[in-house]
Amino acid sequence: MAVKITARKNGPYRVETTEGEVILLDAEGGLYDLTGKPAFSLCRCGGSVNKPFCDGTHSKIGFQAAELAVKKAEGV
User: Fold this and answer.
1) CB count, 10 Å around CB of 41?
2) Residues 6+ apart with CB under 8 A from 14
3) CA-closest candidate to residue 20, choices 34, 7, 1
């Protein structure tokens, strides 16, 4: 099974599969229904009302990915 996960700049984790399936579980071990979804985005800003999926909130709240935030804090 080939799965590609891309951390988008100041955005979500994009999950894509070319074959097979992706299994996504919640904290209690419950299965998310991903039927017919070969690609989806996972929130990493923490602001989505549709967690764990991205709803675009990152762009409204000015989310900065950790790697960029650390560089700014260090004055790089």
Assistant:
1) 20
2) 4, 5, 6, 8, 39, 40, 41
3) 1
Write the pLDDT tens digit of every residue in 8-61: 989 999 999 887 788 999 999 999 999 888 899 999 999 999 999 999 999 999
Verify cis geometry, omega within 30 degrees of 0, for the bond prior to 52: yes
The full set of domains in the chain, from first to last, is 3-73 (3.40.5.90)
Contact 3, 15 (CB under 8 A): yes
Whole-number Å distance between alpha carbons of 49 and 72: 28
**Ramachandran region of residue 75, left (φ > 0), alpha (ψ -120 to 50) or beta?**
left
